[in-house]
Fold:
Amino acid sequence: MNLVQLASHTVDLELLAAARNPRVLDVGCRWFDFADAIRKVSPFAVVIAMDPALDVERRDWSDVETGASLEFLRAALVGEGPVFQRLAHFSTGEGDFLTTLDRYHDAEFYEVPCMPVKQVMESSDITHFDVVKLDCEGSEFGILENWPGPIATQISVEFHDWDKPKYRAEGYYDLLWKRLPWYRVVQHELSKQGEGVGHWDSLLVLR
Structure:
């Protein structure tokens, strides 16, 4: 095991290196910094990058010789729910989140398309991900609570529970791990973001 941070998200490089053309799902890609970091350590990676915000500049490319590619999906990953949901979008793009609210500070609101992970896999003709990165401002809870099985070798998650008492309650994460029996938790630590409060840098690895 060789745990490193790629664009502030922990992954196991040993597991990543085991795949010649690793399939990577980058959820919350905004600046594509995680996708770029993946390509530096694994030049043959096939990356599906997702972000629902309208101001994210689209990037798509492919290399026929190596098989490497980047496909951008302007959509939000969800565990369940309607195919269109309301996004609270901020001028900086940081902290955008799905919500049922009509007003939140200075956020702009608009509807965005949503996809569960199985639909993403089917649309991209992928049967297994080597890495899934989740940085989606609270949607990670619903995504993982509805995770469909051992479809990824490792899942790197930034949990955001700073404003969610339900998820900060004692025992919640233990219950979540039980809903993911295919994985073992190799890291679940408070990150430096948010002054170390309510932001977790976590890594789940396939058993």
In short: Residues 3-78+115-159+171-206 form a domain with the Rossmann fold fold (CATH 3.40.50.150).
